[in-house]
C-alpha cells in the first residue's frame, strides 16, 4: 500500500514561502509527476514528502498515518536523486544493499534481494564494480536498484533523467515507466520536462510559484487547462494566446489555440492573416511561425510536409471546437 | 601526419616537464652532492659536479658535534604533535562549517585566513615574553602549541574544502536508506573523507617539519628540532658549506622519504572530488 495525501502543506525558508499550501491525493500504485518551471517548488514538495525537509505547516499522510514527525527512513519511501548520489567507495552490490544492511537484514538475505534487483535492471554483470566504472545510464540504474530493493510504499524521483543524453533519456523513461507498472508501487516523479510528464504520468501536478495550478491526467491538462499558466506550460510548441477583438467576440479576455488546431490556408481571407517568418520542415511535421500583425507571432503545426516558406502569406483559421477561453484573472471559462 | 605531430608534441612536453623537474630538484641535488665534498671543494670555482673526492667525513663531524637523533626526535614530536592536535580541532570545526553553515561561516573562514596574512615576526616579542613568563621557552609543548595554532587556519581551510566536496545528496541518500548519524559517519562520510584527511595530515606534517621561524626563536637546545640543528652550522666562525649540506640532508631525509612514499595519497587527496 502506498497512498499519499497532502493536507495544507506549507514550507517557508525564513520569510520566503516556497510552498503555499498544497492539497493532494495520490492513489496507491499511481504514477504522479510534479512538473513546473524551475523554482516552482516541485523539488521542495518532494523533499517534504521524503522527510528531508520539515514542513512549516500541514499534514502528510502515508496510508492514513501522519508522518510529519517521522524520520525519512521510517516513512517507507525511497528516493532516486538527480545526481544519482551513489556511494562512491562501495561496489554496486554495496550501494544497492546499503539500505537493507542498515535495516539489519541477514547477509544472505541481502545478497538474494540485491541479486534479484540487479537482475531486474540488467546490472548482474556489474555487481562488483564501483560507480566510477559505470556509464551514466548504468549509474542511474544502480540508483533505481537502491530504491526498489527496499520494497518501499512509494518511489520518489527527483529529476532522475536530466543528467542523461537525449537518446538514453527516452530509453530510461520507458524503463522506469514499465518498472513502476510491473511493481505497482506508487511513484512521485519530479521533472521540468513536460514531455516526460505527459508520457510517464497517470496524473500530473502542475506547480507554479509554490502553488498547485492543476492536478489531472495528461489529457485532461491538454484538453481542459484550468488557467493560462497550465495552458501555456503543457503542450509543445506552446499554445497561442490572442487578446483583443477576437477574444472579446467570443466572450473572453484571452483565447488560446494550440498550434495543431490552427488550419493553414494558403491565401484565404478568413481567420487570422499573416506572413510566415520562419518555416521549420521536419518531414513528419511542419512548424510555421507567422507574424500576424496586431495579434503578434502565432505558431501553427501541420502534420506532414507543407511546402510553404518564409515570406509566404497565409491565413490561420482556428478550429472553433478547440478554442480555450480565459477570463481577466486568467482562469478558464467553461461551457 | 597528424600522429607524427602529436608524437613530437608529446616528446617536447615530456622534455619540458623533465627540465622543469630537474630545475626544481637541482638545489636539493646540489646540497646532497656538497654534503659529500670536502669543505674546500664545496665552494671551489669552477664547481665540480661528480668528479671530486667523495667523503663521509662531514656526516661523521656533524654526528659528533651535535646529536642528530635528539633533534630528529624533537622534530617528530613537534611536527606530529602539532598536526594531530590541529586535526582534532579542525575536523569538527570544518565539519560543522561544511555541513551546517550559518550566515557567519564565510566571515569566520576569512578571519582565520587573515591571521596568516600577518608576518609572524610582528608578534614575536609578545609571544616570546608570554613563553618566557609561563616557562614554555625551549620546551616541546610550547613549540607544539605555537605550530599547531599557526597551521590551524590552513588545516581548517583544507578540510573545509574537502568536506564541502562531499555531495549533500549522498548524505541524504544515506538518511533515506536508514543510516543514523553514527552509521552515516562510519559507513559513508569517513571513507569518503579519508583521502582529504590524509593529504591534509601530510601537508601539515611537512609544513610543521620545515617551520623555522618559531622553532629558531623559541628553542635553543632541549626542545630544538632539526631546523635549529641546521642553523647551528651557519656559525660566527664562518659558513661550513659541506657540513651545512650534510646537516640539511640529514634533516630533510625523513620528510623526503615520507613524501615520496605518500605521493599517491597526496595526489589523490589533491584531486579529490574531480570524479563525478
Automatic annotation (TrEMBL), chain A:
<dbReference type="Pfam" id="PF00005">
    <property type="entry name" value="ABC_tran"/>
</dbReference>
<dbReference type="InterPro" id="IPR013611">
    <property type="entry name" value="Transp-assoc_OB_typ2"/>
</dbReference>
<comment type="similarity">
    <text>Belongs to the ABC transporter superfamily.</text>
</comment>
<dbReference type="InterPro" id="IPR027417">
    <property type="entry name" value="P-loop_NTPase"/>
</dbReference>
<dbReference type="InterPro" id="IPR008995">
    <property type="entry name" value="Mo/tungstate-bd_C_term_dom"/>
</dbReference>
<dbReference type="InterPro" id="IPR047641">
    <property type="entry name" value="ABC_transpr_MalK/UgpC-like"/>
</dbReference>
<dbReference type="InterPro" id="IPR012340">
    <property type="entry name" value="NA-bd_OB-fold"/>
</dbReference>
<dbReference type="InterPro" id="IPR017871">
    <property type="entry name" value="ABC_transporter-like_CS"/>
</dbReference>
<keyword id="KW-0813">Transport</keyword>
<keyword id="KW-0067">ATP-binding</keyword>
<dbReference type="InterPro" id="IPR003593">
    <property type="entry name" value="AAA+_ATPase"/>
</dbReference>
<dbReference type="Pfam" id="PF08402">
    <property type="entry name" value="TOBE_2"/>
</dbReference>
<keyword id="KW-0547">Nucleotide-binding</keyword>
<feature type="domain" description="ABC transporter">
    <location>
        <begin position="4"/>
        <end position="234"/>
    </location>
</feature>
<dbReference type="InterPro" id="IPR003439">
    <property type="entry name" value="ABC_transporter-like_ATP-bd"/>
</dbReference>
<comment type="function">
    <text>Involved in beta-(1--&gt;2)glucan export. Transmembrane domains (TMD) form a pore in the inner membrane and the ATP-binding domain (NBD) is responsible for energy generation.</text>
</comment>
<protein>
    <submittedName>
        <fullName>Sugar ABC transporter ATP-binding protein</fullName>
    </submittedName>
</protein>
<dbReference type="GO" id="GO:0005524">
    <property type="term" value="F:ATP binding"/>
</dbReference>
<dbReference type="InterPro" id="IPR015855">
    <property type="entry name" value="ABC_transpr_MalK-like"/>
</dbReference>
UniProtKB/TrEMBL annotation, chain B:
<feature type="domain" description="ABC transmembrane type-1">
    <location>
        <begin position="72"/>
        <end position="262"/>
    </location>
</feature>
<feature type="transmembrane region" description="Helical">
    <location>
        <begin position="240"/>
        <end position="261"/>
    </location>
</feature>
<comment type="similarity">
    <text>Belongs to the binding-protein-dependent transport system permease family.</text>
</comment>
<feature type="transmembrane region" description="Helical">
    <location>
        <begin position="12"/>
        <end position="33"/>
    </location>
</feature>
<feature type="transmembrane region" description="Helical">
    <location>
        <begin position="184"/>
        <end position="209"/>
    </location>
</feature>
<keyword id="KW-0812">Transmembrane</keyword>
<keyword id="KW-0813">Transport</keyword>
<feature type="transmembrane region" description="Helical">
    <location>
        <begin position="143"/>
        <end position="163"/>
    </location>
</feature>
<dbReference type="InterPro" id="IPR050901">
    <property type="entry name" value="BP-dep_ABC_trans_perm"/>
</dbReference>
<dbReference type="InterPro" id="IPR035906">
    <property type="entry name" value="MetI-like_sf"/>
</dbReference>
<keyword id="KW-1003">Cell membrane</keyword>
<feature type="transmembrane region" description="Helical">
    <location>
        <begin position="76"/>
        <end position="96"/>
    </location>
</feature>
<dbReference type="InterPro" id="IPR000515">
    <property type="entry name" value="MetI-like"/>
</dbReference>
<dbReference type="Pfam" id="PF00528">
    <property type="entry name" value="BPD_transp_1"/>
</dbReference>
<feature type="transmembrane region" description="Helical">
    <location>
        <begin position="108"/>
        <end position="131"/>
    </location>
</feature>
<keyword id="KW-0472">Membrane</keyword>
<protein>
    <submittedName>
        <fullName>Mannitol ABC transporter permease</fullName>
    </submittedName>
</protein>
<keyword id="KW-1133">Transmembrane helix</keyword>
